[in-house]
Structure formats: structure tokens, C-alpha cells
Amino acid sequence: MSGRRRSVVRAAATSSKSRPAAGSSRSVASGTGKSNAKPGGKAGEPKAKTPSAGGPRTSRPNDHFGAKAKKEGYPARSVYKLEEIDRRVRLLRPGMRVLDLGAFPGSWTMYAAKKVAPQGRVLGIDIQENRDGVAPNAEMRQADIFTVEPTTLGRFDVVLTDMAPSTIGSRAADQYNSYLLFMAAVKIAEVTLAPGGSFVGKIFQGGEFEDARRSLRELFETVRIIKPEASRQESYEVFLVGLGRKASA
């Protein structure tokens, strides 16, 4: 992996995801909220934290999704992004094996564990340690997506990632850092996904967006772009969904 790619932000411990009701994004580099790597490409830039959306934050005191997440016991509102994607593409089913990259603080892992139970299993990976309990069919493992060896993770039917970089005030830089995180997840999915499997990954729309979409088209029979209702309106995040992992890719 090039030095440029390795320099991408890996979320700081002050990630928005670690703030239950407000944060919508999930751990970076391996996750929103957990890493201590330097951001994309230039020395001296601030460490990553994981904001949820790709744009400036606005005050939303009456956040319906944040209140709903708190009521239903999820650490972050981002769970409803996955819920909508799951509903629209019929992503998760009982018995599936799921890999959640950038899993902290665990909302997507919790949701996936419920959907694949009782025989399915979920592995969450994040650079930030998770000290909370998880479902019996789930595991949270502390690791860095830029250094973890994909062949040690196992085989999966679905790979998920809601990772986001810390926004640093430059839209182009934020978009590029998001692209690097997305592509790191795609590389892991390329090794770990079983034929016919699916991938869901967040990316900030920018100059590299078509490259990211093209990379999924090479691996999957169908590629869709979804912006869930739970994504903040001011955000330029979307989710690229790859369905039907090609056996020959």
C-alpha cells in the first residue's frame, strides 16, 4: 500500500459516532471515532475523528433519528441508514456471515446481528476498542483496516462500512480521504466476500466518486447508489451498494 494511502485519516477518539444520539457516522480507519492516524496525505494535518456527514454540521435539536436510536437502544442514529438500505435491497437474512468495518460504537453490528440470528454471525472491526457487550452471535475486534490481513478475517456474505474521515475544512481533501477509506474497505471485501455476496460502503461524493463506482462494477453484478433518509440533508455522503459478487472477479 502506498504511503499516500496509508496516511489517510483513522478516526480520533472524539468521533461523532461515539456521541450516541447525535453522531451519524461510524468509526474511521477502521472506523469512526477511533484512530490515531494522520489525515490524508499531508503531514501535520489534524487527526481523524469521525464526523457523520460530509458537510458542515447544523444544530438539529429535534433530530427524529437520534431520539429514535436512543429509545431503541442503539449507540448512534446511523443504524437507520443501514436499516433503509437493508429494506431496499434485501441485504441481510438469517444465517449470513457479516463483516462490519469501522464498527465502533456498534449500531450497525447490533442491527446486523439481529437480522442474521440465530445461526448467522457478525464480526465488527475497529481501531478503537469496544468495551460494551455484544450479541452472542457477534464479535468486536480491535484492528486497523490498513494493516489487518484480510485472509485472517474469514469468509463473509456481506461486507459493510460506514467509515468517514475527519472533515478538515477542505471539501476536496475530505472527499479524497473518504475515497481512500472506501477503497481500503473494497480491497478487504475483494478478499473476504463469497461469490454472490454484497457490499455497502459510504463515500463522500467528489472527484474520485466514479473511480469508486467503477471498482465496484468490476466486482459485482449490480451497483446502486443510495442516500438514506437518515443521512443529513446537508451531507454529501452516499452509499455505494454492490450486489452479486462475481465469482470470476
Topology diagram in text:
Elements: H1 3-6, E1 27-28, E2 31-32, H2 64-72, H3 79-89, E3 97-101, H4 107-116, E4 121-126, E5 138-142, E6 156-161, H5 171-192, E7 193-204, H6 209-219, E8 220-226, E9 237-245
Parallel strand pairs: 3-4, 3-6, 4-5, 6-7
Antiparallel strand pairs: 1-2, 7-9, 8-9
Sheet/helix structural class = alpha/beta
- Biggest sheet, strands in spatial order? 5-4-3-6-7-9-8
CATH architecture: 3-Layer(aba) Sandwich
CATH class equals Alpha Beta
CATH topology: Rossmann fold
Largest sheet, described in full?
Answer: 7 strands, mixed
N/C terminus separation: 20 Å
Description of the molecule:
This protein has 249 residues and is an alpha/beta fold. It has a single domain, classed as Rossmann fold (3-Layer(aba) Sandwich). 27% of the residues lie in helices and 22% in strands. It is built from 6 helices and 9 strands. It has helices spanning 3-6, 64-72, 79-89, 107-116, 171-192, 209-219, and strands spanning 27-28, 31-32, 97-101, 121-126, 138-142, 156-161, 193-204, 220-226, 237-245. A 7-stranded mixed sheet has the order 5-4-3-6-7-9-8, with helices on both faces. A hairpin with a 2-residue loop joins strand 1 and strand 2. Helix 5 packs parallel to helix 6 (209-219). The radius of gyration is 16 Å and the shape is globular.
